[in-house]
Write a structure and sequence with these properties.
Length: about 525
């Protein structure tokens, strides 16, 4: 069955109508980062089935597919139909038609979340502190608490000396442990603007009496002020909560949820919400690793509350979807829900501590069937076959290939397969992640080429006798289309890229038209405190 087709005008009307719908941008990451519709979800063809099943876990959810008017959306429609999706529509003319119609394109990633941050900054004007002033505080030994709102992996890449890694959500939850008085100033930083703004406003909404500041422009603002960044720092363990701190988190959660009108649910209610036909279910587990291990919730997606707010389009592919947010005391879930509701989602908060013996919600298995990877081949056998002329396609990320690769391997993106091959080629070897290889193998099977999967890592292949090239071989943006090149080196000392990035963030609101602006909700921050 051929997918339906709609114009860009009709697609946009459906997208803004208020029902559940997913606009999947099936172009690769570089093109997405250069410009995409506001609520498009990155679902590159190279990772199509992997991304789609995670981002749209309902087979009859309406899908809109957009490409560069190059036929990739048609290919994606076939692959998604094979997975079990039943409501697929193509946007005629793709992104070029969207632009030609007069609709805006937004560069960068996580645009809805970052736009919400800028709207909230304009509406509520959180206190900010610039880098020179904070540096002076540090030199003078002025009392303050300094927290980095990002996850440990980002914190390790670069941090400001003296900042402690306590991500957004976790900081609010553990505040009674780390802030023992109501007077010491609290400073929150991130890499740019959004998480600092959200962190500061979140504490304000909770009625925290300490002066709370967002570091202006985060680590990028620090570097632009000529101040040094630490690299390779290891995050300390999160501060533990005693009974009094846990009670404080629970009390703050109750006040926030009641004042904001967020919907509470229990375990049984959450299971019913997740199973309701015609709705796309998401259950997010906002607890930390140990908390999840103590009371596992199979099928729930583990995520830090701050990251779910900051990068919602990496976790939810469906506009106006139903989200069940789960933690122990309800504070991390309630705080995340406050911001996610402003992004248009239906939010329900589940505090597991309210039902200590009730088990966990049941997440229905998605009725979707992504392709299975082809048969695996032993690296010794694969090396012998490569010597006999079998092509080996390396489908790992371009960044991985640049650092190390197998001799004879050809780096390729799935969308470019099979590329130039000798006449009569009927078998190939594929290297890479299972889901990526599975999709590529399905594509090749359509044109009569059988694939085998070299699943072993490079070290295992080397031990089996396959030579490994370790000399770095950079790829230009014309080839490495699997990564976002939009001001990509802003964290690597390129000051001009940082300036352009920060100008992009602060300019997001001006890009919105009236209909787009109306899709963002408001948060009465001070009325909640």
């Amino acid at each position: 069955m051929k997918p339906a087709r709609v114009t860009a005008e009709a697609a946009r009307r459906r997208l803004l109508a208020g029902g559940e719908i997913a606009l999947l941008d099936v172009r690769e990451a570089a093109a997405f980062g250069d410009g995409h519709p506001l609520f498009a979800i990155p679902c590159p063809y190279g990772r199509l089935e992997l991304s789609a099943v995670a981002l749209v876990p309902r087979r009859d959810c309406p899908l809109l597919l957009v490409d560069d008017d190059d036929g990739v959306a048609e290919r994606a429609a076939r692959r998604l139909a094979a997975c079990g999706y039943t409501d697929i529509t193509l946007v005629i003319g793709g992104v070029p038609a969207w632009k030609a119609t007069g609709y805006g394109l937004f560069a960068g990633v996580n645009v809805p979340s970052k736009t919400l941050g800028e709207l909230l900054e304009h509406a509520h004007h959180p206190r900010t502190i610039d880098a020179p002033t904070l540096a002076q505080w540090q030199r003078e030994g002025r009392a303050h608490l300094f927290f980095d709102a990002r996850p440990p992996a980002e914190y390790a890449k670069m941090r400001i000396g003296g900042a402690r890694c306590v991500p957004n959500g976790e900081l609010a939850h553990r505040l009674a442990t780390v802030a023992t008085d109501d007077e010491t100033p609290i400073v929150i930083t991130c890499a740019g603007r959004t998480r600092g703004i959200v962190g500061a406003l979140g504490l304000r909404a909770l009625g925290v009496r300490n002066p709370v500041y967002a570091l202006e422009n985060g680590t990028q603002g620090w570097a632009l002020a000529g101040l040094p960044l630490d690299r390779g720092a290891r995050a300390d363990p999160l501060p533990t909560l005693d009974a009094a701190a846990t009670a404080a988190s629970r009390a703050r959660a109750a006040r926030l949820i009641d004042a904001s009108g967020l919907t509470r649910t229990d375990v049984a209610g959450a299971s019913a919400l997740l199973a309701e036909p015609g709705r796309t279910p998401f259950l997010f587990d906002l607890r930390n690793v140990q908390e999840r291990a103590d009371r596992p919730a199979p099928g729930a997606v583990p995520v830090l509350a701050g990251q779910l707010i900051q990068a919602t389009d990496q976790y939810v592919g469906v506009r106006n979807a139903r989200l069940v947010l789960m933690d122990d005391t309800g504070l991390r879930a309630g705080l995340a829900g406050l911001f996610l509701r402003a992004l248009g989602y239906e939010v329900h908060v589940l505090a597991l501590d309210d039902e200590p013996g009730a088990g966990v919600p049941v997440v229905p298995a998605p009725q979707l069937m992504p392709p299975a990877p082809p048969p695996m081949v032993d690296p010794r056998v694969a090396w012998a076959r490569a010597g006999d002329g079998f092509p080996l396609f390396d489908l790992r990320s371009s960044s991985e290939w640049e650092e190390r690769r197998l001799v004879c391997a050809r780096w390729s993106m799935r969308v470019d397969l099979p590329g130039p091959l000798p006449p009569g080629t009927s078998r190939v070897l594929l290297q890479g992640e299972a889901g990526v290889v599975a999709g590529a193998a399905r594509d090749l099977a359509e044109i009569g080429i059988t694939a085998e999967w070299l699943a072993a890592d490079l070290d295992t292949c080397a031990a089996a006798g396959w030579p490994v090239e370790a000399m770095r071989r950079p790829l230009g943006r014309d080839k490495a289309r699997d990564r976002v090149w939009f001001v990509h080196d802003r964290h690597d000392g390129n000051a001009e890229a940082s300036r352009r990035y920060l100008a992009w963030e602060t300019g997001l609101i001006a890009q919105l038209d009236a209909e787009e602006r109306a899709t963002f909700g408001t948060i009465p921050i001070d009325a909640l405190a």
